[in-house]
Amino acid sequence: MSKAREQSSTTGTPRRGAVVPPPTPPKFFELIPPNPGIDFVGMAPKVAVASILLIVIGLATMWARGGLNYGIDFTGGTMVEVRFPSATSIADVRASLDRPDVRSVSVQDVGGAGADFQIRAQQASDEASSVADAIKAGLKDRFGEGSYDVLRVESVGPKVGSDLWRNATLAVIASTIMMGLYIGFRFDLPVGVGAAAKLLHDVLFTLGAISIANMEFDLTTVAALLTVVGFSVNDNVIISDRIRESRRKNRNEPLATLVNTSINETLSRTVINSGTVVLTTATLFLLGGPVIHSFAFALLIGFLIGTVSSIFISTPIVLALEARRTHRA
Amino acid sequence: MSVQYRALALALLSVAALVIVVPTFVSPPPAWWPWKQSVRLGLDLQGGTHLLYQVQIEQAIDNSVDRLAREVEREMRDAQVGAFTAEREGRAIQVRLGNREKRAEARKFIQDRFPNLTVQEPGGSNAPDLALELQQRELLRIRDGVVEQAMNVIRNRIDEFGVVEPTLQVQGDDEIVVQLPGIQDPQRAKDLIGRTAVLEFKFLAEGPQAGTLESPGPGTQVVSGERDACPSGKCLVERRSIMTGDVLTDARVQPGGSLEGPTVDFVLDSQGARLFGEATSAKVGRQLAIVLDNNVQSAPVIREPITGGRGQISGRFTFEEAQDLANVLRNGALPAPLKLMEERTVGPSLGKDSIRQGTISFLVGSMLVWAFMAIYYRGGGLITDVALVLNVLFLVGAFALFGFTLTLPGIAGLVLTVGMAVDANILILERMREELRLGKNARAAIEAGYDRAWSAILDSNVTLFLSGLIMFQFGSGPVRGFAVTMCVGIATTLVTAVFATRVMYDWLVSQRRLATVSV
User: Fold this and answer.
1) Which of B342, B455, B459 shows the shortest C-beta gap to A156?
2) Is B484 on the interface with A (CB under 8 A)?
3) CATH value at residue B299
4) Could you report the predicted ipTM of this complex, rounded to two decimals?
5) What is the rounded distance in angstroms from the CA atom of residue B491 to the CA atom of residue A279?
């Protein structure tokens, strides 16, 4: 406790009001003490290895499944979601789609209650909606119009899907590089490299988690990844900001110690910062409904891992780069 | 700026936002209410159809060359340059003259009349006598114009179809997005938009030169047709058309009797009336072919010369079909065929579910954050909570003010903004705690808290804003809605979480002589 005060005391500047100090140190409601004194830098390699191992497992399941569970945004094809007011058997729904103009159809009972069904089929031609019309006709013939509710229809031509692939990859890579450049410009080149590497790690980790959980990967998931890239760099900002400030004051202290102290001092705010965001994201995941389920999942995983990786992935990289730099100089 | 002025500015801003937001929640607002526009909901929330079309520009260029070939033919015939044919071959028009001696004369004539064509005289025995090509500049002009022209045609057709607040947007080089709120069964709308609607008036081929359906004679072609017009489903028509749909000035539905059903009556402009009159006077007794998108719609027998510039298309139409046909004829043909690339329909029940689930998530999420801040940071938390309410108010107000569209991911963005907005306050409050631990008084701690935290707050928001911009660029529809919410949310966060809370603190310190600060 006294150690904490000594270190932060260097940041204070005497002012008029400081002449009469309060008799007792102020008490705050704290979940994390101002300086918990955890050896983050020492732990970093182990945590980093564990996290990279998880990424490998995630990517391995992706490979084993032959890719992610892509939504029709990416694969092209047709999806029709219908709701029946009374329980209907999946076999009935399948039978209604036994038509020559509906190819490789798959029917899924969403929620398992025989109410909501998701029907997917491949596109027969490069016109987007012919299969959707065929599916709707099949349902109408079997069940009669008005006896069910068409929740949504999505038809995407194959060209849209392949364009999207390229654009999504480009967008994620571009924003990662942009974050690295911005942080590198605001702080220091090694800090920028550390941030970009950590963001890449976060994206891969999230993709791995999506694969393990078999969540759908669609357009909104890409938006989630971009948000994670933009937001997760915040913890790097906070920690680097503190390192920069402490470095000015304690020029003689070894960098590793300085970095570790800075992480400890800012731990409370990085954890609470992510905490409020995770709180709202978890609410979206639990209550937001099926349409944004995979979106909220990607955000949740990305935000959680983002805080961890700011400490355990970026820090060793920054330290290593700095060590090489001083070594050369 | 003194604290009084800043407080006044904040109060005015809040009142304005409140006025703007009310119509979104109280509808309709009282008649005297100064702001009427409520927040616009995306198709995923209100239900409707989203269509993405690709304009087949290459086809449009082919069509233009075709049209030019016909024009060249007509002009040359009028100028009596002798026997010849002009046919499109790829992007070129090949002219074959009956008499090769007249090549120089024909060349000069075309160069004078069609300055936007380049004329070449290819060698070789089998080559045409003249090869005409569009100039590069002319090609570019067509390319640029096609998408806009298609937009206008589609807009006119939809306007007459009667959709409330449809939106049309050009996307990329050659794509058009059509959004039709409230349309659940888009079949009719798709038929209406996607129909090229090229109308041609021709004669059914007859006589010894006509040939048969299996081997059409020179100058004739086989096209499909309605059963009433072509009993076999196919008709032999003359290749040359009397006129095309651009001479129509009006087209209306005639209800018709119970037997023949509705028909579409049309009116021609003076040039069309003249052409039609001449052609029908010369060929009384022949059968006319009214060809719509290469399909013979009807084939009436010409009983007398039609000089009044009026005509009628019959068929086995339902009233709706006749209505849509009149609509497309009135608004002209598309400059190029459209290809449907993407169709998304959201039914009203899913939209309602989404609104409900989005609202619940928002309420629960913000309540959790609200309560956490108040419990953890006490006084400072309460000030943050006031700023949070203002933040949401300003964010929703900005949507109503600028007419941004709120989508389901947009609502998610609103929920996330709540979680992210307090981050700025957490940085400030944690910093204030640090300064207080050092023994500073309230005023100094507040000042240092804001000063020292500002740089990190700015950097965090800049990075998020940058990724929001990339997302906007990348995404479409709902994803854009999310990107917009996030970027606007960053702006309102800077105003409320930093500026507004500072005003509140300064006001407390200066007006209330605040000696201790609760964080």
Assistant:
1) B342
2) no
3) 3.30.1360.200
4) 0.87
5) 22
